[in-house]
What we know:
Elements: H1 2-18, E1 36-38, E2 41-46, E3 49-56, H2 65-72, E4 79-85, E5 89-93, E6 96-101, E7 105-113, E8 116-119, E9 124-126
Amino acid sequence: MKKIGLLLIGLIFLLVACSEDVMTYEAKASDFEGGFEHNSQMIIVNGEELMINGNYYSEEKQKTVLDKVLEADNEFPAKHIEKIYKNAKIKTKKDRYYITADDGISLEFQKIGDRIIVDEEGAEFYTMKYP
């Protein structure tokens, strides 16, 4: 009986030690002030302006939401783009960012790390500086 009790206690400790902690990150509108980058694309929200900056490639294997915004604006592929959209607003809920701006812009991102967000297409964006 004593061995079974020790075995049971050992098993409980093993299960507790092996359980994976799930980290959830809180989205804050201020996270976008320094901007996020993916390959040669950057997104920044400064005040009430949403800026998309970088290169647009229409043949990209994995398109980002930024590619889709530029595509909808009929931008030419393989050129450097700098677009500014007015009346940008960021709403957050738990680990999600909801960004809207003029011209029907509506974007959603999820915070998956201290400096990492992922868009609706699964593309990861990173900050260049650590707060």
